[in-house]
Write a structure and sequence with these properties.
Elements (H helix, E strand, L loop, with lengths): L3 E5 L5 E5 L7 E5 L6 H10 L2 E6 L5 H4 L9 E3 L4 H5 L2 H8 L13 E2 L9 E4 L8 E5 L4 E5 L17 H10 L9 E4 L5 E2 H7 L1 H6 L3
Parallel strand pairs: 3-4, 4-5, 5-6, 9-10
Antiparallel strand pairs: 1-2, 2-3, 7-8, 8-9, 10-11
This protein binds zinc ion.
The site of zinc ion has 4 residues, from loops.
Length: 208
């Protein structure tokens, strides 16, 4: 079993399964895209013990799989309404006109997770409840739509805020170790150091 499994959704969002400690063997799912079946199949095939799903934020391409996930779901509850009521996002993103598909299940506050393997960072800007998940034992961090290899998350969507994004880049992104691997919500991974040096938007906003 590998300590990291990557699945890219048809919506281009990345879903990850991470197993931070082989000693307890508990795995976490990072984000729940709409087409979750390959992820559920992998969990079943590998017979993984899932400690829960951690959502980087409430956008549909990271959260619409909630209804097919049979386990605890953790999210910054500032994004609860986004995650529960995706129909407004779906209309604006894809021009779809959908009947209400409100999610009625339980959502847990991600900052309440007690795990020595995990550090939860709050980085508002893309959405109010955007979070990053750091796993120190693996030297990796999952950033959702906060920081990408070659860009940053949009701030013009519901609850997005450019000033909060600038704050988060300068006060959260800068806390990540240079040699960590950053796994974003879309696109390829890269080291934190390389992103600091090469990501034009991050460079523009640092020390703004
Ligand atoms: Zn997003």
């Amino acid at each position: 079993m590998d300590d990291l499994f990557v699945f890219t959704s048809f919506t281009t969002s990345n879903c990850y399964i991470v197993t931070p400690s082989l000693s307890d063997g508990i795995s976490y799912v990072i984000d729940l895209p709409p087409d979750l079946d390959p992820v559920l199949d992998y969990i079943k095939k590998e017979n993984l013990s899932i400690g829960g799903a951690l959502l980087t934020h409430g956008h549909f391409d990271h959260a619409l799989g909630m209804s097919s996930f049979d386990g605890s779901i953790y999210i910054d509850l500032n994004d609860e309404q986004l995650a529960r009521k995706p129909e407004e996002q779906l209309k604006s993103f894809m021009g779809l006109n959908l009947d209400s598909i409100t999610y009625q299940g339980e959502l847990n506050e991600v900052k309440d997770i007690k795990s020595e393997e995990l550090i939860v960072h709050s980085n508002p800007g893309h959405t109010k409840g955007s979070s990053s998940f750091e796993f120190p034992s693996l030297g990796i961090v999952f950033t959702g739509d906060f920081i990408f290899k070659e860009g940053i998350g949009r701030t013009d969507l519901l609850t997005g805020d450019t000033n909060e994004m600038i704050y988060s880049i300068n006060n959260v992104f800068t806390e990540f170790h240079d040699d960590y691997i950053l796994y974003p919500g879309h696109g390829d991974k890269d080291t934190v150091k390389s992103i600091k040096n090469n990501n034009i938007l991050v460079r523009e906003y640092l020390n703004d």
